[in-house]
Amino acid sequence: MSAPYAELGPATVLDALETAGLRGDGRLLALNSYENRVYQVWLEDGSSVVAKFYRPGRWSDAQILEEHSFVQELAAREIPAVAPLDLAGATLRAHAGFRFAVFPRRGGRTPELEDRETLAWLGRYLGRIHATGAARAFATRPALDAGSFGREPRDWLLAHDFVPADLCEAWRSAADLALQGVDRSYARAGTLRALRLHGDCHAGNVLWTEAGPHFVDFDDARTGPAVQDVWMLLSGDRAAMEKQLGHVLEGYRQFREFDARELHLLEALRTLRLLHYSAWIARRWDDPAFPAAFPWFNTQRYWQDRILELREQIALMDEPPLDAP
After folding, report:
1. What is the pLDDT of residues 102-130, one digit of tens each?
2. CA–CA gap between residue 44 and residue 244 (Å, rounded)
3. At CB < 8 A and 24+ separation, what contacts does 297-301 make?
4. pTM given for the model
Protein backbone atom coordinates (compact mmCIF):
# COMPACT_ATOMS: atom_id res chain seq x y z
CA MET A 1 0.00 0.00 0.00
CA SER A 2 1.52 3.32 -1.08
CA ALA A 3 1.76 6.09 1.55
CA PRO A 4 -0.65 4.32 3.94
CA TYR A 5 -0.62 7.19 6.42
CA ALA A 6 -1.06 10.06 3.96
CA GLU A 7 -4.47 10.93 5.43
CA LEU A 8 -3.38 10.63 9.06
CA GLY A 9 -2.79 14.24 10.04
CA PRO A 10 -2.96 15.87 13.49
CA ALA A 11 -6.65 16.70 13.10
CA THR A 12 -7.48 13.06 12.29
CA VAL A 13 -5.52 11.87 15.34
CA LEU A 14 -7.33 14.29 17.65
CA ASP A 15 -10.71 13.49 16.12
CA ALA A 16 -10.04 9.77 16.56
CA LEU A 17 -9.30 10.20 20.25
CA GLU A 18 -12.41 12.30 20.70
CA THR A 19 -14.51 9.40 19.39
CA ALA A 20 -13.05 7.42 22.29
CA GLY A 21 -14.02 10.11 24.79
CA LEU A 22 -10.57 11.70 25.06
CA ARG A 23 -10.25 15.40 24.26
CA GLY A 24 -6.78 16.52 23.26
CA ASP A 25 -5.47 20.02 23.91
CA GLY A 26 -3.82 20.16 20.47
CA ARG A 27 -0.34 19.00 21.41
CA LEU A 28 1.06 15.88 19.69
CA LEU A 29 4.49 14.31 19.70
CA ALA A 30 5.32 11.64 17.12
CA LEU A 31 7.15 8.76 18.82
CA ASN A 32 9.75 6.48 17.26
CA SER A 33 7.84 3.87 15.25
CA TYR A 34 8.05 2.86 11.61
CA GLU A 35 5.63 -0.04 11.35
CA ASN A 36 2.76 1.89 12.92
CA ARG A 37 2.24 5.54 13.75
CA VAL A 38 2.45 6.31 17.45
CA TYR A 39 1.83 9.66 19.14
CA GLN A 40 1.97 11.04 22.63
CA VAL A 41 -1.19 13.11 22.93
CA TRP A 42 -1.77 15.67 25.67
CA LEU A 43 -5.33 15.90 26.96
CA GLU A 44 -7.30 18.88 28.19
CA ASP A 45 -6.94 17.74 31.80
CA GLY A 46 -3.14 18.03 31.53
CA SER A 47 -2.45 14.29 31.36
CA SER A 48 -1.17 12.48 28.28
CA VAL A 49 -1.74 9.14 26.58
CA VAL A 50 -0.10 7.22 23.75
CA ALA A 51 -2.19 6.61 20.63
CA LYS A 52 -1.12 3.83 18.27
CA PHE A 53 -2.52 3.77 14.72
CA TYR A 54 -2.03 0.34 13.17
CA ARG A 55 -0.55 -0.07 9.71
CA PRO A 56 -3.45 -0.84 7.35
CA GLY A 57 -3.53 -4.43 6.13
CA ARG A 58 -0.89 -5.89 8.42
CA TRP A 59 -2.99 -7.58 11.09
CA SER A 60 -6.66 -8.52 11.15
CA ASP A 61 -8.91 -7.17 13.89
CA ALA A 62 -8.91 -10.62 15.49
CA GLN A 63 -5.10 -10.71 15.55
CA ILE A 64 -4.84 -7.25 17.11
CA LEU A 65 -7.45 -8.11 19.73
CA GLU A 66 -5.57 -11.32 20.53
CA GLU A 67 -2.45 -9.24 21.18
CA HIS A 68 -4.47 -6.90 23.41
CA SER A 69 -5.92 -9.83 25.33
CA PHE A 70 -2.47 -11.31 25.93
CA VAL A 71 -1.06 -8.04 27.28
CA GLN A 72 -4.13 -7.50 29.46
CA GLU A 73 -3.65 -11.02 30.81
CA LEU A 74 -0.05 -10.15 31.72
CA ALA A 75 -1.05 -6.89 33.35
CA ALA A 76 -3.75 -8.66 35.37
CA ARG A 77 -0.99 -10.85 36.81
CA GLU A 78 0.94 -7.72 37.86
CA ILE A 79 3.53 -8.19 35.14
CA PRO A 80 4.58 -4.69 33.95
CA ALA A 81 3.34 -4.98 30.37
CA VAL A 82 1.70 -1.79 29.12
CA ALA A 83 -1.81 -2.81 28.08
CA PRO A 84 -4.26 -0.81 25.93
CA LEU A 85 -6.98 1.16 27.67
CA ASP A 86 -10.52 -0.15 27.52
CA LEU A 87 -12.47 2.87 26.27
CA ALA A 88 -16.24 2.54 26.16
CA GLY A 89 -15.93 -1.24 26.17
CA ALA A 90 -13.30 -1.58 23.44
CA THR A 91 -9.51 -1.60 23.20
CA LEU A 92 -9.48 -1.44 19.39
CA ARG A 93 -11.28 1.42 17.73
CA ALA A 94 -11.58 2.80 14.19
CA HIS A 95 -11.86 6.28 12.71
CA ALA A 96 -11.46 7.64 9.17
CA GLY A 97 -10.24 4.28 7.89
CA PHE A 98 -7.60 3.82 10.60
CA ARG A 99 -7.66 1.35 13.47
CA PHE A 100 -6.13 2.58 16.70
CA ALA A 101 -5.61 1.82 20.37
CA VAL A 102 -4.80 4.09 23.28
CA PHE A 103 -2.26 3.25 25.97
CA PRO A 104 -1.28 4.86 29.25
CA ARG A 105 1.95 6.80 28.96
CA ARG A 106 4.89 5.13 30.68
CA GLY A 107 8.27 6.80 30.87
CA GLY A 108 11.65 5.17 31.24
CA ARG A 109 15.12 4.71 29.82
CA THR A 110 16.88 1.93 28.00
CA PRO A 111 17.94 -0.83 30.42
CA GLU A 112 21.64 -1.29 31.14
CA LEU A 113 22.22 -4.73 29.70
CA GLU A 114 25.77 -4.83 31.03
CA ASP A 115 24.45 -4.92 34.60
CA ARG A 116 23.97 -8.33 36.24
CA GLU A 117 20.98 -7.34 38.37
CA THR A 118 19.25 -5.66 35.42
CA LEU A 119 19.57 -8.87 33.36
CA ALA A 120 18.36 -11.04 36.24
CA TRP A 121 15.42 -8.67 36.76
CA LEU A 122 14.51 -8.90 33.10
CA GLY A 123 14.89 -12.67 33.30
CA ARG A 124 12.43 -12.87 36.19
CA TYR A 125 9.79 -10.99 34.24
CA LEU A 126 10.46 -12.96 31.06
CA GLY A 127 9.95 -16.12 33.06
CA ARG A 128 6.60 -14.78 34.27
CA ILE A 129 5.61 -13.62 30.77
CA HIS A 130 6.40 -17.06 29.37
CA ALA A 131 4.63 -18.88 32.19
CA THR A 132 1.52 -16.91 31.24
CA GLY A 133 2.21 -17.35 27.52
CA ALA A 134 2.37 -21.12 27.95
CA ALA A 135 -1.01 -21.28 29.66
CA ARG A 136 -2.94 -21.13 26.39
CA ALA A 137 -2.30 -20.71 22.67
CA PHE A 138 -2.90 -17.95 20.17
CA ALA A 139 -5.77 -18.78 17.83
CA THR A 140 -5.10 -16.28 15.03
CA ARG A 141 -1.60 -14.82 15.40
CA PRO A 142 1.07 -16.63 13.34
CA ALA A 143 4.08 -18.66 14.41
CA LEU A 144 7.69 -17.60 14.12
CA ASP A 145 9.28 -20.30 11.97
CA ALA A 146 11.71 -20.86 9.12
CA GLY A 147 8.94 -20.67 6.55
CA SER A 148 7.39 -17.35 7.50
CA PHE A 149 10.58 -15.63 8.70
CA GLY A 150 13.08 -17.10 6.27
CA ARG A 151 11.90 -18.77 3.09
CA GLU A 152 8.97 -16.47 2.37
CA PRO A 153 11.07 -13.26 2.82
CA ARG A 154 13.85 -14.73 0.65
CA ASP A 155 11.39 -15.61 -2.11
CA TRP A 156 9.66 -12.23 -1.89
CA LEU A 157 12.90 -10.27 -2.21
CA LEU A 158 13.97 -12.31 -5.24
CA ALA A 159 10.55 -12.06 -6.89
CA HIS A 160 10.47 -8.27 -6.53
CA ASP A 161 14.02 -7.66 -7.80
CA PHE A 162 15.34 -5.84 -4.75
CA VAL A 163 18.73 -7.56 -4.82
CA PRO A 164 21.03 -5.99 -7.48
CA ALA A 165 21.47 -8.24 -10.51
CA ASP A 166 25.23 -8.56 -10.09
CA LEU A 167 24.83 -9.66 -6.46
CA CYS A 168 21.67 -11.69 -6.84
CA GLU A 169 23.29 -15.11 -7.24
CA ALA A 170 25.70 -14.57 -4.34
CA TRP A 171 22.88 -13.39 -2.07
CA ARG A 172 20.59 -16.24 -3.15
CA SER A 173 23.34 -18.78 -2.46
CA ALA A 174 24.11 -17.28 0.97
CA ALA A 175 20.41 -17.18 1.87
CA ASP A 176 19.88 -20.80 0.76
CA LEU A 177 22.89 -22.03 2.74
CA ALA A 178 21.77 -20.00 5.75
CA LEU A 179 18.31 -21.55 5.64
CA GLN A 180 19.88 -25.01 5.44
CA GLY A 181 21.81 -24.05 8.59
CA VAL A 182 18.54 -22.98 10.22
CA ASP A 183 17.04 -26.39 9.39
CA ARG A 184 20.04 -28.16 10.93
CA SER A 185 19.72 -26.04 14.06
CA TYR A 186 16.06 -26.93 14.45
CA ALA A 187 16.87 -30.61 13.89
CA ARG A 188 19.51 -30.52 16.63
CA ALA A 189 17.11 -28.82 19.03
CA GLY A 190 14.44 -31.46 18.49
CA THR A 191 10.77 -31.03 19.34
CA LEU A 192 10.30 -27.95 21.52
CA ARG A 193 7.30 -26.41 23.18
CA ALA A 194 6.01 -23.25 21.52
CA LEU A 195 4.28 -20.52 23.51
CA ARG A 196 2.93 -17.00 23.23
CA LEU A 197 5.85 -14.54 23.08
CA HIS A 198 6.56 -10.84 23.13
CA GLY A 199 8.30 -11.60 19.85
CA ASP A 200 10.46 -8.45 19.61
CA CYS A 201 12.00 -8.20 23.06
CA HIS A 202 14.99 -5.98 22.38
CA ALA A 203 16.16 -3.24 24.73
CA GLY A 204 14.19 -0.57 22.86
CA ASN A 205 10.94 -2.27 23.86
CA VAL A 206 11.77 -2.20 27.56
CA LEU A 207 11.38 1.05 29.50
CA TRP A 208 13.45 1.03 32.68
CA THR A 209 12.64 2.97 35.83
CA GLU A 210 13.80 2.80 39.44
CA ALA A 211 10.89 0.43 40.02
CA GLY A 212 12.10 -1.89 37.25
CA PRO A 213 11.07 -2.56 33.65
CA HIS A 214 7.93 -1.90 31.64
CA PHE A 215 7.51 -4.10 28.54
CA VAL A 216 5.95 -2.24 25.62
CA ASP A 217 4.98 -2.84 21.98
CA PHE A 218 3.68 -6.40 21.72
CA ASP A 219 2.85 -5.72 18.05
CA ASP A 220 5.08 -8.64 16.97
CA ALA A 221 3.63 -11.11 19.48
CA ARG A 222 3.73 -14.58 17.93
CA THR A 223 3.97 -18.23 18.84
CA GLY A 224 7.49 -19.58 19.10
CA PRO A 225 10.30 -20.86 21.33
CA ALA A 226 11.08 -19.07 24.58
CA VAL A 227 14.64 -18.29 23.46
CA GLN A 228 13.24 -15.80 20.92
CA ASP A 229 12.58 -13.37 23.80
CA VAL A 230 16.00 -14.05 25.33
CA TRP A 231 18.55 -13.82 22.52
CA MET A 232 17.94 -10.16 21.68
CA LEU A 233 19.14 -9.23 25.17
CA LEU A 234 22.55 -10.78 24.43
CA SER A 235 25.42 -9.14 22.56
CA GLY A 236 29.18 -9.28 22.12
CA ASP A 237 31.45 -12.28 21.70
CA ARG A 238 30.66 -15.79 22.87
CA ALA A 239 32.11 -15.29 26.35
CA ALA A 240 30.12 -12.10 26.87
CA MET A 241 26.88 -13.68 25.67
CA GLU A 242 27.33 -16.72 27.90
CA LYS A 243 27.83 -14.43 30.89
CA GLN A 244 24.75 -12.37 30.00
CA LEU A 245 22.71 -15.52 29.39
CA GLY A 246 23.66 -16.82 32.83
CA HIS A 247 22.36 -13.63 34.47
CA VAL A 248 19.08 -13.73 32.51
CA LEU A 249 18.49 -17.40 33.31
CA GLU A 250 19.31 -16.76 36.97
CA GLY A 251 16.12 -14.74 37.13
CA TYR A 252 14.12 -16.67 34.54
CA ARG A 253 14.39 -20.00 36.33
CA GLN A 254 12.80 -18.57 39.46
CA PHE A 255 9.49 -18.67 37.60
CA ARG A 256 9.86 -21.11 34.71
CA GLU A 257 12.17 -23.87 33.55
CA PHE A 258 14.29 -23.08 30.50
CA ASP A 259 14.89 -25.89 28.02
CA ALA A 260 18.60 -25.67 27.20
CA ARG A 261 17.98 -27.41 23.85
CA GLU A 262 16.51 -24.10 22.66
CA LEU A 263 20.01 -22.63 22.63
CA HIS A 264 20.59 -24.57 19.40
CA LEU A 265 18.16 -22.03 17.88
CA LEU A 266 19.83 -18.83 19.05
CA GLU A 267 21.87 -18.14 15.91
CA ALA A 268 19.15 -19.66 13.73
CA LEU A 269 16.64 -17.14 15.06
CA ARG A 270 19.14 -14.34 14.52
CA THR A 271 19.55 -15.52 10.92
CA LEU A 272 15.78 -15.57 10.35
CA ARG A 273 15.51 -12.06 11.74
CA LEU A 274 18.15 -10.82 9.30
CA LEU A 275 16.25 -12.22 6.32
CA HIS A 276 12.91 -11.00 7.62
CA TYR A 277 14.29 -7.51 8.33
CA SER A 278 15.47 -6.94 4.76
CA ALA A 279 12.09 -8.00 3.39
CA TRP A 280 10.27 -5.89 6.00
CA ILE A 281 12.00 -2.72 4.82
CA ALA A 282 11.52 -3.65 1.15
CA ARG A 283 7.78 -4.24 1.60
CA ARG A 284 7.43 -0.76 3.14
CA TRP A 285 9.55 1.07 0.57
CA ASP A 286 6.51 2.88 -0.87
CA ASP A 287 5.88 4.42 2.55
CA PRO A 288 7.76 7.78 2.42
CA ALA A 289 8.92 7.29 6.02
CA PHE A 290 11.07 4.32 5.05
CA PRO A 291 13.42 5.85 2.42
CA ALA A 292 13.88 8.77 4.82
CA ALA A 293 14.67 6.51 7.79
CA PHE A 294 16.73 3.89 5.92
CA PRO A 295 18.60 5.78 3.16
CA TRP A 296 21.31 3.08 3.10
CA PHE A 297 18.83 0.37 2.19
CA ASN A 298 18.89 -1.15 -1.30
CA THR A 299 22.35 0.21 -2.09
CA GLN A 300 25.12 -1.97 -3.47
CA ARG A 301 26.92 -1.75 -0.12
CA TYR A 302 23.82 -2.83 1.78
CA TRP A 303 23.47 -6.12 -0.11
CA GLN A 304 27.22 -6.79 -0.02
CA ASP A 305 27.09 -6.45 3.77
CA ARG A 306 24.07 -8.77 3.98
CA ILE A 307 25.91 -11.46 2.00
CA LEU A 308 28.85 -11.27 4.42
CA GLU A 309 26.48 -11.29 7.38
CA LEU A 310 24.68 -14.40 6.18
CA ARG A 311 27.99 -16.18 5.55
CA GLU A 312 29.04 -15.39 9.12
CA GLN A 313 25.74 -16.79 10.40
CA ILE A 314 26.23 -20.00 8.42
CA ALA A 315 29.46 -20.61 10.34
CA LEU A 316 27.99 -19.59 13.71
CA MET A 317 25.02 -21.94 13.37
CA ASP A 318 27.37 -24.93 13.10
CA GLU A 319 29.26 -24.01 16.28
CA PRO A 320 28.27 -25.59 19.63
CA PRO A 321 25.44 -23.70 21.36
CA LEU A 322 26.09 -21.35 24.25
CA ASP A 323 26.43 -23.02 27.63
CA ALA A 324 23.42 -22.52 29.87
CA PRO A 325 24.78 -22.33 33.46
Report:
1. 999 998 999 999 999 999 999 999 999 99
2. 45
3. 298/162, 300/164, 300/167
4. 0.95
**pLDDT score, position 2:** 64
Angle, CA of 269, 231 and 155, to the nearest 5°: 20
Q: Which fold has domain 116-317?
A: Transferase(Phosphotransferase); domain 1 (1.10.510)
CB 324 within 8 A of CB 264: no
Other Cβ atoms closer than 10 A to 109? 10
Q: Kindly tell me the sign of the dihedral angle through the C-alpha atoms of 123, 127, 128, 130.
A: positive
- Mean of pLDDT values over 213-239: 96
Grouping H, G, I as helix, E, B as strand and the rest as coil, residue 322 is coil
Q: Which amino acid is at 69?
A: S
Question: Amino acid letter at 86?
Answer: D
The CATH fold assigned to 12-104 is Phosphorylase Kinase; domain 1 (3.30.200)
Cα–Cα dist 226/251, whole Å: 14
Q: Where are the domains of the chain?
A: 12-104, 116-317
Mean per-residue pLDDT, 148-165: 97
pLDDT recorded at residue 59: 97
- Among all residues, which ones are annotated catalytic? 200, 217
Q: Is residue 292 classed exposed, middle or buried when 0-12, 13-18 and 19+ CB atoms within 10 A define those classes?
A: exposed
Q: Give the other-Cβ count within 10 Å of 314's Cβ.
A: 18
CA dihedral over 286, 288, 290, 295, signed as positive or negative: positive
